[in-house]
């Protein structure tokens, strides 16, 4: 059974589900970890009150090794290395700023009093507050080196892992040369030459030129629509908002420091015969980089036999019509600020700050043709907005039936809270669980999934200011739903898992 309840039913009513609106740059990766592969434990250090005792080798180096060096290494994606004492000393005050503002390491999922996910996340990159305090105290104490023999004994982290039992490796025929000085989004068509339904169980992206590849997303194109978009015969085309096809499904993503996406051995994503893959690469130029040529590779591991569980990527949200019945269930916008008397609309007025758009999707009880909804589990989740967006929350309100049959369940469950959205660091957050799929967060028929997005449509928003500047626009404009850089979205990504019958 191929389950496709969200996109199809919503599109059928003219609402803009993501499949209809197009997918924007959007990272999917169950295991998209940060660079942390080291097994170095956090140091046992004195309280920050005794900062005189804090040294680089004893206290700061273990934090850098575990949380920073996968990217901040010569030849890595970060613009400078943080490998040696000299590296760290010269960047000490920037490190304090970047870590206290939680801009670094790049990680968006933080709990809030009104939204604390019930499950933790795999490969959590967050620095503990005590590590942030250690870096600050070390800098305030004059960034002392200390004794090199106190340095962590373990090997430095490797830049990235490798996908085990690789089945296929796909690379564009020709390389791409980044000549622009602004960020570029390029789509590459890859043909896996699949002749019968195949199940993807793992994937990984190998950046050809890690100094300019900021992140990469891979979409399935089952109807081979992308071929018509690569008009110059090169199997490549420019693409900002998404791959430009009618119903893209997001298969994989990679950001610097990621480990391979490894689904559990009994889980696979179905890929139909003839499907093409579209790899969208986000290129980020640096003034100091001289080699601007890239040829990035997508690696896949397939299963030999159909798995016990199917993993289904669904993108839900981007509604621009009020909540209404869309054929047996409800979906749409909830009332919010600045709505006209006629009802909710998706519109972020120019110069508004803290404007919100909230949408709801009521999980249907059947998946078309009257087939009852199977038990659905959530493996990973992601949010997506563009440059005007600043925050997202994804929550679910469970039905009374669900609560009666699910011991310990809470009526209102927080799935993801992203208080400081950063377009440049998108990813899926995979939940921690004990290896039993049934212990992942569950979704039941009639549950109300809600996605709330907050926007800053003023010049105080640095990504928006930069984007307006690039377009030689002096002032913000009213922003509506759409695919281009100055349009917005409010979208959730969900990797659902269900047991095959
Ligand atoms: C996943 C890769 C990655 C990890 C992990 C990472 N960085 Fe960065 N860092 C970058 C990149 C890339 C930049 C360049 C700015 C950007 O693209 O956001 C950067 C920029 C910085 C800057 C410059 C400030 C700025 O905003 O431009 C500092 C300081 C910094 N990182 C410190 C750290 C520290 C300290 C850690 C670990 C606690 C860390 N980073 C972990 C990739 C990473």
Compute the number of helices.
8
**How many domains make up the coordinates?**
2
Please tell me the overall pLDDT. Answer: 84
Could you state the CATH homologous superfamily of the largest domain? Copper type II, ascorbate-dependent monooxygenase, N-terminal domain
Instruction: Estimate the global geometry from the Cα principal axes.
Output: globular
CATH topology description of the largest domain: Jelly Rolls
The CATH architecture classification of the largest domain is: Sandwich
Number of β-strand runs: 25
Biggest sheet descriptor: 10 strands, mixed
How much strand?
25-35%
CA gyration radius, whole angstroms: 23 Å
> What hetero molecules are in the model?
heme C
Considering DSSP H and I runs of 4 or more, what fraction of the residues is helical?
A: 10-25%
Name the CATH class of the largest domain. Mainly Beta
Q: N-to-C terminal Cα separation, in Å?
A: 8 Å
Q: Structural class, judged by helices and strands?
A: alpha+beta
The parts where pLDDT drops under 50 for at least 5 residues are 1-51
